[in-house]
Amino acid sequence: MLNKIFQKISLKFGGLISLIIKEFHTIWRDKKSRSVIFLPTIMQLFIFSHAATLDITNIKLGVLDYDKTEITREFIRQIKSSRYFSKIYNFKNQKELKNAIDEEKIRVGIFIENDFTKNYKTGNNPSVMVLSDGRRTNSSQIISSYISEIANNFSPLGQIKKSSTSPFFEVRNHYNPNLSYHLFIVASLMGILPMTAVILLSSLSLAREKEMGTFDELLILPLKTSEIILGKIIVPLFFGIINSIIILFLSKIFFNLPFCGSIALFFFSLVLFLISIVAIGLFISSIFKTQQQAMLGVFIFMFPAIILSGYTTPIENITPEILQHLTFLNPLRFFLVISKGIILKNMNFYYVFLNLLPIVIISIFALFGANRAFKAKLE
Fold this sequence. Notes:
Layout: H1 2-29, H2 31-34, H3 39-51, E1 59-65, H4 70-80, E2 85-90, H5 94-102, E3 108-112, H6 116-121, E4 128-132, H7 137-152, H8 181-212, H9 215-219, H10 225-254, H11 263-287, H12 291-307, H13 321-326, H14 331-345, H15 349-378
Parallel strand pairs: 1-2, 1-3
Antiparallel strand pairs: 3-4
Helix pairs in contact: 1-10, 3-8, 8-10, 8-11, 8-12, 8-14, 10-11, 11-12, 11-14, 11-15, 14-15
């Protein structure tokens, strides 16, 4: 009975299984394909998680203190003792402070007027001017927020903080209480790094066949076009899932990445996302003749896809507005929402489904395009 079942399976899917085995062997023997499977992903995980961060530390600060009292010295000491600032330079006048910023010897400067202590003791809000380098817009805003946070919590030793005329408020950060940028980066890399490996493997697939002269062998196989496409999907998909497991394992060990949601829902979403990426890779591969051309097509797609995914900047901040509409064609945009949602805040199936639906639609269109391009080669 079992023999008959295996025989039927072998007759029906033997060609497809042979194609899948051939793909595994071809990828593993090909240096270009083998080189993009695991090692670059691991290296990029550690490079991106440490280098691609908006956390700013080791800041050099310039101080111009016209008050020069014990309270202002304590204020400066509390700034220096924070984890953000590495060195503080004292200046005698505004010209020296300005020149230090112009020459980029310091990242930011603070100017304390001579009525700081007087205003503090009388319960008024003492003013501190923050001078930042406008050439670095984003970092200037972040550093200014650091100084503002220290100023709001400032209290000289042995004294009770004076009441302020500004309203009291308390800030609580859900899902990332310590505002660790590593959590945001690594949760995003769970989609970006497997996408990089998978789209390279899939885009080289058909182009390699054409370049090596084995494309005609595909045509004589007793397989439908859809079965050939399926055989080309399974192998990159397999390596993409393995990559994701490695990334998740290393993230738990080295970055203490929490996993608040369902791991089964995460991998289900990951598989659908990677299928969409493989489909795009096969479409790229089907319209180019050589592997170099296919890799160029990958880079043309990949970098805009990352930039327009919400990884580096919120979608709402992208201008002109037409580019925001263009992000609806990007499966990475939707998977990053799922990845960060499941990992950091236990996103439920309903919201996951809302983001999976456009990924599935993109997959269908990309697979249809790859199938049509492949059939065009047969005619």
